[in-house]
Amino acid sequence: MLPPIANRFVAGDSPAEALEHVRRLNERDVNGIVNLLGEHHDDRESVDADAAEYRRLVADIAGSRLAAAVSVKPSQLGLDLGEDVFRTTLAAVVDAAAERDVFVWIDMEDHTTTDATLDAFEALAREHEGGVGVCVQANLRRTRADLRRLADVPGKVRLVKGAYDPPADVAYTDPARVDREYRDLLEYAFDRYDGGIGVGSHDPAMIEHATALHERHGTEFEIQMLMGVREDAQYELAAEYEVWQYVPYGDRWLSYFYRRVVERRENLRFALRAVLTG
Ligand code: FAD
């Protein structure tokens, strides 16, 4: 059982609980991106176990006809054991998902993993002609060039501000500078991409910017937010735009929960309030 403090941000221990959460989201026109919590596996057994769970999950999603995708972390699928392990494991998950027409997102971890993650994404996206997406981080100085590289690759790209804490030689560390970068990168993507843009942000200013760019260019996009964050806004936006909620599940919730609290201390207050009010 999950401790009550995690309930706001994590759908439960089991895939069944995550899919039940997605079913309730779908009733409100919000789609689900299901993530099995887990990262930095340093043994093959854990990597293979999580990959097998993702393969079962995509079969369950296809069987349930839910509007749902999955999202995986490179270090969950073996990147810490080597790029070859990661690419083989990821390919097996993406193949299983492609057979069932389920979309696979690849989360982006710290800046030392960006090359390996983008290379694996590009190879699979070209092989499957889509069906897979990757996250890029606006706080990294390299991301402008990465967006240019990805412009003619099939699949989707999720733009986020960045949840890790990279050093200043590779990243912008001032939040206002990251916001400016996020806006510029959105402008580039809406101008140059055919579609497939994921706006992964809770920031009303960034979402407003994206919707204005959509009006101007007509480029297709989706808004993505996390479970437990601005959920009322998610339901409101879903009346007009495609909205996806990132839905984590599993018992390895601590580091995910910690990242949410570091991002915004209020998240701890929200979580505690949820515990106190049942
Ligand atoms: P912030 O800059 O944190 O906040 C800006 C404004 O948004 C706030 O002033 C407030 O108005 C509003 N806001 C933000 N949080 C809240 C809240 N809890 N309650 C109410 N209002 C709030 N990062 C990665 O590095 N790799 C990934 O793969 C990745 N995947 C992600 C997937 C999704 C779907 C999302 C939504 C985020 C993901 N992130 C990922 C995290 C991301 O990088 C940011 O750390 C996180 O989204 C916080 O930035 P923000 O744009 O939401 O807004």
Basic shape: globular
Low-confidence blocks of residues: none
Q: List bound small molecules.
A: flavin-adenine dinucleotide
**Mean pLDDT level:** 95
Count every helix, treating DSSP H or I runs of 4 or more residues as helices: 10
The major sheet is characterized as: 8 strands, parallel, barrel
Derived from helix and strand composition plus strand pairing, the structural class reads: alpha/beta
The span between the termini is: 15 Å
At the first level of CATH, what is the class?
A: Alpha Beta
Could you state the order of secondary-structure elements as H and E? HEHEHEHEHEHEHEHEHH
How would you describe this structure to a colleague?
Keywords: FAD, Flavoprotein, Nucleotide-binding, Oxidoreductase, Proline metabolism. It catalyses: L-proline + a quinone = (S)-1-pyrroline-5-carboxylate + a quinol + H(+). One of its GO terms (molecular function) is proline dehydrogenase activity. One of its GO terms (biological process) is L-proline catabolic process to L-glutamate. This protein has 278 residues and is α/β, with parallel strands linked by helices. The chain has one domain: Alpha-Beta Barrel (TIM Barrel). The chain is built from 10 helices and 8 strands. Helix 2 (44-64) runs parallel beside helix 3, helix 3 (83-99) packs parallel to helix 4 (114-128) and helix 6 (175-192) runs parallel beside helix 7. The two termini are 15 Å apart.
Short description:
This protein is of the alpha/beta class and 278 residues long. The protein has ten helices and eight strands.
